[in-house]
Amino acid sequence: MALVGIVLGSDSDWPVMESGFQLLKDNGVEAEILVASAHRTPDVVREFAVSAKAKGIEVIIAAAGGAAHLPGVIAAHTTLPVVGVPIASGALKGTDALLSIAQMPSGVPVATMAIDGGKNAALYALSILALKYESIAKSLDFFRKEQSEAVRHKNVALQNKINSKR
Ligand code: RP5
Q1: For ligand 1, atom 1, which residue shows the shortest CA distance?
Q2: Quick check: pTM over 0.85?
Q3: From the CA of 10, how far away is ligand 1's center (Å)?
Q4: What is the dihedral of CA 103, 16, 120, 92, to 10 degrees?
Q5: pLDDT along the chain (166 residues), means of 10
């Protein structure tokens, strides 16, 4: 059963969210993907948002570019946590989407990631799910440890490279 719903404003947003989708999968979390636009298919977006909780979805990730109202519209129809990902598309390269998503008026919040922050959106969703699911908490701890280990290795490799030239 999908615990996460990933809504894309367009199929052109998929390359940004694909690594997040893979990260969820690597941590044992299934995600449902939907391409639906807040302005081009508003009925589809509404239907998804109002039925998500009953389907078992616990976190929604919404990625969109331009004047990105998709995460806010979804959040307006559900009390599930909504994580917004501004996509770097169009003339303003995502700054428009970033501000649209971050500057939600008081009352209906959306957690805002960095521009093209698909991977962090998945990690944030995992953090929310980890509050309830011990297996996800353990998986996330393991991810962090591996990540730290990779940085330590990079440091050692760079030190060795610098020292070998002395
Ligand atoms: C937004 O406009 C989408 O989320 C996408 O980032 C951007 C461009 O969409 P397409 O023209 O590629 O469908 O609605």
Answers
A1: 65
A2: yes
A3: 5
A4: -30
A5: 98 98 98 98 98 98 98 98 97 98 98 98 98 98 98 98 91
